[in-house]
Amino acid sequence: MSFDELDFETRAVHVGSEPDPATGSVVPPIYQTSTFAQEEVGRHKGYEYARTGNPTRTGLEACLASLEGVAPGGPGGALCFASGMAATSTVLQTLAPGDHMVLSADVYGGTHRVAARLFAGWGLQLSVVDMTNLDALKQAMRAETRLVWVETPTNPLLNVVDIAGAAELARAAGALCAVDNTFATPFLQRPLDLGADVVVHSATKYLSGHSDVIGGALVTRLPELFERAKFLQNAVGAVPGPLDCWLTLRGIKTLALRMRAHCHNAMRVAAFLAGRPEVAEVRYPGLPSDQGHELAARQMSAFGGMVSFRPLGGVDAAKRLVAATRVFTLAESLGGIESLIELPGEMTHASVVGTDAEVPADLVRLSVGIEHPDDLVADLAQALDGLPARP
Questions:
Q1: What is the four-CA torsion angle of 226, 232, 237, 243, rounded to 10 degrees?
Q2: Does residue 365 carry a catalytic annotation?
Q3: Catalytic: which of 99, 162, 180, 290?
Q4: Cα angle at 296 between 210 and 165, to 5 degrees?
Q5: pTM, two decimal places
Q6: Cβ atoms within 10 Å of 24's Cβ, excluding its own
Q7: Looking at 11, 190, 205, 221, which residue is catalytic?
């Protein structure tokens, strides 16, 4: 039986991590090399130069392709990059000057920044719309539209976008549909199975899972798109080092276990916040009252580890809150085993202030880790004490 026929958890452990054929080592080695000996000119063992390919990276790419539902041997596959933004930029580089892209209004600030401030100068046309409204997406489509960029759940408002609906609209317009699957991971959501053409990850986050790696990936079943992106991966050279690939591959082995804990803890935290008088609004698709709950329940197997909320008292109260936590660490990024807290408006999304992608200044974003949920709730409770409350 092939490992690709087995369940997610088994594939996460074994695909791309086969025992070393030279020594029998259960853990494959880190191929920390920049070049490879050739038997003669043009004849080698599959590797020439580590920017073009490295066995450690090959293992990670095989694992990610399997987890996102790409059959072994293609068509398509996974490609790994030095960061999530390198993967995102590679997708945008498959477009041409004059092409049009539709972007979710609520996305990671770096995605909006690279599209609006870098590729717009290169000739890319950009429309930013609320993709929770498919009619708005349909109205934004043009004859020259070539890409619809979906992020779901969105960062940082945790809105839920209908992947199948967005992909159908993109296909009808002759455009590709890309989905940033960083928040959900392939354990909770598989966009390719819902009709998307390409999936992008910041592997820095849940995939590696331990806040010690920067990395990115894209996955597609389209052979032409894969070959174009593979050319760009080599030509531009924004590739990850072998140690980063090895650490990410190691992290993926526990992805299913970690995501179950993240989801469980996030639900506890969201329900707690929803009952606190100091909290004006909670955003978490796992709450039955959340506007994206029903859609998320259809296209995700669980609701993820991210929670956003707005305290009463505005920005001043939000700043006092994020400075008062002890278990939650005030820091950017997300998806690690430790819980993080931040103000997106002044931190991860500062680059979109003043644009149509600006987020509320008093929004607090939580990356809920795998600590004991009682400790996480108690930490937030003590931080909320003393803030303004509803009468």
A1: -10
A2: no
A3: 180
A4: 115
A5: 0.96
A6: 7
A7: 205
